[in-house]
Amino acid sequence: MGLQNKKAFLVKDAFRSIVFIVIDYACLCLSIYIAYLLRFDFDFTLTKAPPISIKFFLLVVAFKILIFAIFRLYKSLWIFAGAYEVVSVVIASAIANFVLSVLLLLQFHFTGRLFAPRSIFAITFLIDVFAVGGVRLLYRVYRRIVRGVKFNMGEVKRALIFGAGNAGAAIAKEMIKNPGLCSKPVAFVETDPYKIGHKLNGINVIDENKHSLEELVREERIDEIIIAIPHAKPAKINQIYSQASKTGCKVKILPSVSQIIDESVTIQKVRDVEIEDLLGRDPVNLDISEIEKFITGKKVLVTGAGGSIGSELCRQLAIFKPQKLYMLDNYENSLHDLLLELREKHSNIEFDPIVANIREEKHINTLFQKLKPNIVFHAAAHKHVPLMELHPEEAIKNNVLGTWNVTHAADKAGVERFVLISSDKAVNPANVMGATKRIAELICQAIDTKSKTEFVAVRFGNVLGSNGSVIPIFKHQIDSGGPVTVTHPDMTRYFMTIPEAAQLVIQSGASANGGEIFILDMGQPVRIVDLAENMIRLTGLEPYEDIEIKFCGLRPGEKLYEELLLNEEGIQKTKNDKIYVARPLFTDYALLKRKLELIDQAIQKGTDGVTIREYIKDLVPTFNQNLEVG
Predict the structure, then answer these.
(1) How far, in Å, CA of 273 to CA of 270, rounded?
(2) Alpha helices, DSSP H only, in 259-307?
(3) Burial class for 189, CB neighbours closer than 10 Å (0-12, 13-18, 19+)
(4) In angstroms, what is the C-alpha Rg of the chain?
(5) CA-to-CA distance for 535 and 274, rounded, in angstroms?
(6) Does residue 425 have an active-site annotation?
(7) Residue ending a domain, choose from 94, 117, 151
(8) 456 - beta bridge partners?
(9) What value does the mean pLDDT take over residues 588-597?
(10) DSSP per-residue letters across 173-206
């Protein structure tokens, strides 16, 4: 919230509180007057009553207002007034009137005189509750009537809800209670035989398997379809969406249980379907105690902290309360934004942003000796395939020599464990970027054989929405009216969400012994053309009709499909069903060092890209560039 917005909010909040106090003041004054009338048989002249002084009114009512303020009655929103607010009014009024009664009796005890009849505060208690509580409930009723008028005058959307479980029932109930939402639940669609044919909140539950969705939409004049099955598997969500998207209705969804942090279901959580929902993956099961032993109270350093994976690693690591989190990146803007975000969410953790370049060996060594981190996550890397094809020497400098610098600095500083972020493109690489990631893996496996530090790598595929990935590119192309460019109709890729990848990387690091390459279960590969078609439909448009999909051919260094495992590595399960481990392969440290020195010298001499690729091929025999192009 900006400073101006915050000031405006505070002014509005203060004004609302003043209005509430004025209304209560009037109610409480009226309460005392009515109490006197009741006490003296509606003698409007009050001839039998002791005189009521202005001072008495002011002091009694001011005292009650003070008690109400202590009970925060002026912080609640009257539009949502209900049982909780009424109970608060009852308790606050009871305490205020009880204290005043005690003061009245004390006055009589010491002076023999009464400033009011002894029964007056018992009567005002009842009237206070009806007056103060009633005005709040009346305001809520008034707002509902006003909203109802607007609702009847406006266009009401007829909603079909998939799922007659707790989530669907909660959403339907909220729609019915809040006509201002301008959405009316017409029917539930369900597969549970115990619910089909019955009514839920007065709404019919229809058998999904016996009714065509298109016919149902036409017969019931449906405007929007809401998928309210938070426990559904991704395949089920895809099945429903593929049918719903053909009806012309607006399709919305309640997020999965893994995305609903507080586990509460409200209409506010219903949102448009996103591509992540269609590529959705089952929630990650983490061994929290193992991660806490690994991270809590430790000094943790993340390289490439400003990037997609690096920044999410920092967010996830902060949850486990490290003693200090060092965030290293050579791009200060993203680092600054991340720092502000984390300090706001985790004020009890010390965050240390470091602007540095992993290519600068001496500086990196000095930093590690000074900071003495316990754990290192190495996410800094050049990752864009086409750019690295144009500049292979930059890929070597950053992804290979930079990794050499960081691993050796970690070794010298006595780091406990070092986790490299690798890629599925490292397997039988068809491009320079993938080959450099494979060399980075080799560096970790080689140095692990001679170091007390445990070096491991974690290999996975594409993450949804990362910088420069296909999804942001497609979104931009769709927003621009097309065409959406796909390299090949048969191209497939593995995808997972950024938070899932970060969580599994941390879990892999926690269970490592050194020398392993962990491989994350990426699920089923996704055809890129299917991804493009779904993203177009999510905007309410039709692929090939409203937005053209154009096939432009494989680019240099691209493969039709990615692999996660070398033939000779083998694979074993771990205790986490989404993490596998490859059998460590022996890497000769001395030989690797000599070859890297040669390629470093060649780059410094300005050697051409063809020769650099030959050096890479010598280091990674499975490097087979442009194997599938043409």
Answers:
(1) 9
(2) 275-278, 288-295
(3) buried
(4) 34
(5) 8
(6) yes
(7) 151
(8) 419
(9) 91
(10) HHHHH-GGG-EEEEEEEE--TTTTTSEETTEEEE
As a whole number of angstroms, the distance between CA 229 and CA 208 comes to 14
The answer to whether the bond into 483 is cis (omega within 30° of 0) is yes
Structure tokens at 129: 């509750």
The full length of the chain comes to: 630
User: By the 8 A CB rule, do 546 and 536 touch?
Assistant: yes
Q: For residue 321, with 0-12 CB atoms within 10 Å meaning exposed, 13-18 middle and 19 or more buried, which class applies?
A: middle
The secondary structure of 200-263 as a DSSP string is ETTEEEEETTTS-HHHHHHHHT--EEEE--TT--HHHHHHHHHHHTTTT-EEEEPPPTTT-TT-
Q: Is the pLDDT of residue 166 over 90?
A: no
Domain of 391 in residue numbering reads as 289-468+496-527+558-619
Question: In the chain, how many domains are there?
Answer: 3
Closest CA to 555 of 623, 469, 487: 487
CATH of residue 571:
3.40.50.720
> Could you give phi then psi for residue 302, rounded to 5 degrees?
-120, 120
* One domain, residues 79 and 110: yes
Report yes or no on 434 lying in a domain.
Answer: yes
| Residue 475, both tokens | 């979104």
Given 64, 425, 437, 559, the catalytic residue? 425
* pLDDT tens profile 72-125: 777 666 555 567 777 888 888 888 888 888 887 887 777 766 666 777 778 888
Please name the amino acid found at residue 53: S
The tens digit of pLDDT for each residue in 377-398 reads 999 999 888 899 999 999 999 9
pLDDT per residue as tens digits for the range 563-577: 555 554 567 777 877
Domain membership flag for residue 483: no
Terminal C-alpha separation, the chain: 53
| Best CA proximity match to 419, nearest among 397, 452, 441 | 441
pLDDT tens track for 260-282 = 434 455 666 777 777 777 776 66
Q: Which of 277, 312, 334 is nearest to 504 (CA)?
A: 312
**Pairing verdict, β 199-200 and 203-207:** antiparallel
Domain boundary among 95, 116, 151: 151
Of 270, 273, 325, 330, the C-alpha closest to 302 is 325
Q: What is the distance between the alpha carbons of residues 365 and 370, in angstroms, rounded to a whole number?
A: 9
Q: What is the pTM of this model?
A: 0.63
98, 496, 626 from 559: Cα distances, Å? 80, 19, 8
Tokens standing for residue 265 = 């279901």
**406, 303 contact by CB (below 8 A):** yes
The Cα 420–Cα 441 span in angstroms is 7
